[in-house]
Amino acid sequence: MSERPVAVITGASSGIGAATAVALHKAGYQVILGARRTDKLAEVAASLENAMYYELDVTDAVSVEAFCAQVPHVNVLVNNAGGAWGLETVANAIDEKWEWMYDVNVLGLMRMTRTLLPKLEASGAGHIINVGSIAGREPYVGGAGYNAVKFAVRAITQVMRLELVGKPIRITEVSPGMVETEFSLVRFDGDTERAGKVYQGLQPLVAEDIADCIEWVVTRPPHVNIDEIVVKPLAQASASVAARKL
Ligand code: NAP
What is the pLDDT at residue 138? Predict the structure, then answer.
């Protein structure tokens, strides 16, 4: 194990998590990556000296325990694994989709946090970054299942600030607007055409823009807690209002 402080990043096999691995590595962290697709994790880790990666399914308590057992100490936990599935109205809601969204975005975050909290505290300078969303602040038609889980992420982050005050653990929520990643592909069951339309006619954020925010909050002096950051593309004013040149 190197002398670098350690950052654990969930959902590091693509998008924001993968970009955060690169950014925190550059910022001087040893990164430990988790996700279900270990082939993708291997690709991300390949160029990052001392990076480690292990299979992780945050919806599976046994997997979370096994992953966290491989982490001897940790300074930063980025709870990034998550996503949306579907865009059905409440009238047409599909239980399986809502259950998956709750499991990965809410219970997954809780399981990882609960398990690593003692090690984060023992580090003497811990930091938890929860990746929320503007969907956690602004409801939109068809968004209820995803809105509900990202509103929950926001609530949990705020409760943790209250519960952990006085301990050496910073808590931050980073809430992106539109970022072009695999997010929309997952949301629309691999439908590339439908996913592409989400970003049509505007310049979305890229994963590196969010990684940049995460790197910035982590590298503030230890007494400075950035509570929350909301970041959207210039062309996006709210969850459902964007300027498109079509
Ligand atoms: P992405 O490219 O689809 O990445 C999602 C990551 O989560 C993948 O690495 C995926 O890895 C991982 N993941 C999914 N289920 C998992 C599970 N059960 N256990 C462990 N890892 C799991 O999308 P992204 O945009 O980077 O999303 C990252 C976070 O940003 C999510 O929390 C998302 O809700 C949030 N967000 C995204 C946007 C956006 O517009 N893109 C906006 C606001 C918020 P495996 O499939 O390999 O497990």
Answer: 98
**Residues with a CB atom less than 6 Å from ligand 1:** 10-11, 13-17, 35-37, 40, 56-59, 80-83, 104, 131, 133, 176, 178-179, 181-183, 186, 207
Altogether, the residues listed in the chain come to a count of 246
Tens digit of each residue's pLDDT (9 = 90 or more) over 2-18? 589 999 999 999 999 99
Which residue is closest in CA terms to ligand 1's atom 17?
57
Q: Which atom, in ligand 1's list, is nearest to the CA of 18?
A: 9
Tokens of 121: 């505290």
* pLDDT 10s digits, 22-44: 999 999 999 999 999 999 999 99
Kindly state the average pLDDT of the residues 198-205.
Answer: 97
For residue 17, the ligand 1 atom closest to its alpha carbon is 26
68 CA distance to ligand 1 middle (Å): 19
Q: What is the rounded CA–CA span in Å between residue 44 and residue 108?
A: 22
CB 204 within 8 A of CB 180: yes
Q: Which of 80, 175, 183, 160 shows the shortest CA–CA distance to 114?
A: 160
Burial class (CB in 10 A: 0-12, 13-18, 19+), 136: buried
Number of neighbouring beta carbons within 10 Å of residue 189: 11
Q: 162 C-alpha to center of ligand 1: Å?
A: 27
What is the pLDDT, as a whole number, of residue 3? Answer: 86
